[in-house]
Design goal:
The protein has 295 residues and is α/β, with parallel strands linked by helices. Helices cover 28% and strands 22% of the residues. It folds into two domains: 2-247, Carbon-nitrogen hydrolase (Nitrilase/N-carbamoyl-D-aminoacid amidohydrolase), CATH 3.60.110; 259-295, no CATH class. The protein is built from nine helices and twelve strands. It is globular and about 60 Å long. Residues 272-295 have low confidence and may be disordered.
């Protein structure tokens, strides 16, 4: 399947302009023969959590479904989604007939997203389109190997990932480089779970761009530059994912039993401390889970 990725900046002050950009991109992707087009995190409302969290994106999702029909392709968009009093960053995969194939709510929130959004509580489902099994993730999700591995275990061969990776503040940049995420972590996530990954980032002021399509061996098939809008394409198919899994047996060669933390030895008396130095008595629930290997 030929995958298209749109890198562009969503303007929170001009959602109608964002929709027009999406329409143009869908037309180009269709003309180039793409089976699916992936767009950035919160592109339609604009990525500005504090400003857009109060605006449900139902109308934007309806418009996106219409574009999938008009241009005859699968389309991934990310919008704000309200459910009662809860507010989510969500992703949606629409089919060429306008139906919604996949729906996912971001489970790992980053930065000020935590102040205005609720975290989803379930991973993406997996669906087969154009001969390949696909699933959704959103931005920070793919920085967690457990999330990507869970989707691979569920049968996913290709992850479609709207994202919005920002440049760091000066203080944050003393700790790590945001560029490390797209240059190193994204290919690593693909390789260690032998899944292909289409990663659509925002670009322009405040964002690092460098969107990419990565093969199941961690090879970068196509990528965008740093600053401007781009639409680029690359081919991925299910057969090559199967071949990668035969050559790189990261899934089949696992030994989950030995990854569990060993039970502490005890000869009676006071409760032993964990290997992390957290007392068994009075440890927080998070610490207890960590000591037990559940996190």
């Amino acid at each position: 399947m030929l995958i298209g990725v749109l890198q562009a900046t969503g303007d929170p002050a001009r959602p109608a302009r964002n929709l027009a950009v999406l329409r143009s991109a869908a037309a180009e992707a269709s003309a180039r023969g793409c089976g699916v087009l992936v767009t950035p995190e919160l592109f339609l409302p604009g990525y500005a959590p504090q400003l857009v969290a109060g605006r449900d994106g139902a109308g934007q999702r309806t418009a996106a479904a219409g574009l999938a029909v008009e241009f005859g392709l699968y389309l991934v968009v990310s919008t704000v989604e309200h459910d009662g009093s809860n507010r989510y960053i969500s992703a949606h995969l629409f089919a060429p007939n306008g139906s919604r194939v996949l729906h996912y709510r971001k489970t790992h929130l980053f930065g000020d997203e935590n102040e205005v959004f609720d975290a989803g509580d379930a991973p993406s489902a997996v669906a087969r389109i154009e001969g390949i099994a696909v699933a959704l993730g959103i931005c920070f999700d793919v920085e967690f190997p457990e999330y990507v591995r869970a989707l691979a275990d569920a049968g996913a061969e290709l992850l479609l990932v709207p994202t919005a990776v920002p440049w760091l503040t000066a203080a944050e940049a003393e700790l790590y480089e945001a560029d490390f995420v797209v240059q190193r972590i994204v290919p690593t996530r693909a390789m260690e779970s032998t899944v292909a990954l289409a990663y659509a980032n925002q670009a322009g002021p405040g964002f690092i761009g460098a969107s990419r399509i990565v093969g199941p061996a961690g090879d970068v098939r196509a990528s965008a530059g740093r600053d401007g809008p781009e639409l680029f394409v690359a081919e991925v198919d299910g057969a090559e994912v199967g071949y990668a899994r035969a050559v790189l047996p990261y899934l089949s060669a696992r030994r989950p039993r030995i990854y569990q933390a060993p039970a502490p030895e005890s000869s009676g008396g006071d409760p032993p401390e964990s290997r992390l130095g957290v007392p068994r008595t009075g440890a927080s629930s998070a610490a207890r889970k960590l000591c037990a290997g559940e996190m």
